[in-house]
Write a structure and sequence with these properties.
81% of the residues lie in helices and 0% in strands. By secondary structure, it is mainly alpha-helical. Helix 1 crosses helix 2.
Length: 139
Amino acid sequence: MNKKYDCATIIFVVQITKMKYIKQFLIIIAFSFAGEILHFLIPLPIPSSIYGIILLFLSLCTGILKVEHIKETSNFLVEIMPLMFIPSAVGLLESWEVLSSVWLSYISITIITTFLVMIISGRITQTIIRWRNKGAKNE
């Protein structure tokens, strides 16, 4: 069955879709703002973005906020995340004179710590899996 839509219906659907994205973005921004307030009120050396992410995570875990409320906008933000690293990469290129004498040390530390994180994460994951399997066998 081939349906024909008039122009007003198409415009209405497009506007509703835009409003959905704006609403989802405002929800994410509200959690970021709450993180800024917590950073101001709590004198700990924790970035405000971490407070906001923790609040968002807790809201999702407790069911206060459902994934559907922020799904499309958060997917969009994850998709454009590589674009956000361009300014920092340009900043590294701009300060090459300072980094040129120590770049080998930085690269070595980055590679070593990356492998350490991979090894430790793998070991912790294996331990948790073994622990869960033992618990399942005992039940």
